[in-house]
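Working notes for the structural subgroup meeting. M.R. asked for a predicted model of this chain before we commit to crystallization trials. I am recording the input and output together here so anyone reviewing the notebook later can reproduce the run.

Input as submitted:
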Amino acid sequence: MKHGFIRVAATSPKIRLADCSYNGEQIIKCIENAAHSQVKLLVFPELCVTGYSCGDLFFQDILISHAMEQVKNIARSTADKDLIAVIGFPYENKGRLYNTAAVLYRGKILGLVPKMSIPNYGEFYETRYFSIGPKNPIKVDFLGEEVYFGSRLLFESTDIPDFVLAVEICEDLWIPMSPSNSHCIAGATVIANLSASNEIIGKARYRRELVQSQSRRLICGYVYSDAGEGESTTDLVFSGHSLIAENGVLLSEAEPFQNRMIINEIDLGIIKSERKRMNTYKEHDGAEHIRIKYSFSNDNRVLRPYDLIRRIDPSPFVPEKISERKDRCKDIFTIQAMGLKARLSHVGAKCAVLGVSGGLDSTLALLVTHKSFEMLGLDSKGILAVTMPYHGTSDRTYNNAVSLAKYLGATLIEIPIKDAVEQHFNDIGHDKDAHDITYENSQARERTQILMDLANKHNGLMVGSGDLSELVLGWATYNGDHMSMYGVNSSVPKTLIRSIVEWYADSTDNNNLAEVLRDIIDTPVSPELIPPTEGKEHQLTEDYIGPYELHDFFIYYVLRYGFSPEKIYRMAKAAFANKYKDEEILKWLQLFYNRFFAQQYKRSCLPDGPKVGIVAVSPRGDLRMPSDAKAKLWLDEVKRISK
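Returned structure, recorded in token form:
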């Protein structure tokens, strides 16, 4: 599928024990429904052709022969369908019975994969019936069709890049060295697991965590189909708890006891990118594996970008669940404070200097500094909170900056910069009424000079407040607010800064402080460098560079996964479908690439600052990028999209 998305499904048909014909009909109906939904991989439960809980009926020749005939019949039903179906059945070969998965496509059996871990403990008695299958594949005659039979089979699509399927069955996942380990090292990107996992208290949670963990450790997609209603309830109950996971993220989960099909898309681009980035992920050529190649339709339908079922999170840096968001904000805040604490201790500083504007970034920087002083047992009066008003400063932000310093017990210093900046304009021959980039940057550099010199005077450390979003976009004055002695926000994106300040406001016992913080959160983002004209508001940053939520979305997928502009645009359309028009997204995407490439020189000389997440731009760690790289390839693709 285009852009690396592969639509997958797991289903738990309602079966009848030992009624192979009925079960075959239900399986075929599921296949038809999945094909109608453009599914490319459909996974069924373990032994679904007969039912898992047949017990000693597995010793009956008639059951086994009918099951094998149904597999052929089900395979024939796929002849006109562009999907891989993986079904479970008991397979007899040379007097031995194997718990087996048949991989079906276009009327054929691509391969047979046996279960390798046969449980015989607790409620399981599988060794009574089944043998361990061969690891290394052998060729067998399956009702007149020669196919490979063995664990080490990889099913590789020739027309969907990076879609390499491997199969394991139920207990195979629960053991320390599961078959999927070797499959993924050999190149598999998606694992299908056919399961019949009975339900007991606490098992659903453990099963969910196990599937997520396995997909994360192996950096793969994992499609887990669980047996449900129709299995025997003599001693056990099965819930149909199917799961779809990708690189540790749970994409879909079937509600237990519903016997339903779950559908989602696995992003093969994420899997490819993560494996490429993690150089300790050692793939090998998988010489012991047999690669079975096949291709989907020749009419290019497989590459058409259909509407995604998969939910694309518009705020990838900010967890949607409140509990997770609180935990993340607390962790990031602690990392920031610990980093600053260590630096203050190292240089022996008992004073910290920072500018306070009443905006989000400087607010978080001040909160972090206050926490660091608290950790060190230092008097918060040693925090010099400096407000430096000029013509663009609003009463709202000024008052919030003053109140913030007061409620945190910092020492407030007010240094108006009007005279200094206008003297500077006279010195360089600049018209003070020309509100251009010189007008704006002169203020930023004057403020930085004041903060640096105050830090020298008081033997302190100047704390920077610039955030990740600004640094990626280059929305900072070179050697102005771009520079500091330690940048506590340098790897925190703007959308997350807002959440951290909100978390702090909700956590503090100081009601006055919380009230100020909430007003700061509600204040539109503005550099406040140009005085408002009559009847107009202050300049708003997002009017110039676009919404930060869009840019943070772009940042995440450009820097985290290296996705193409076309793919990011498609994902952004899905994520912001009800908020931004397509042309708006394209406009700001083009601006993003322009600024990202043009402003790298600012990131090449960033001051130290703590890394808090997987996306960061420190030239010493995460982004080694030449300052004169050209954006042409990326911008050309954006232009092609817009035509």
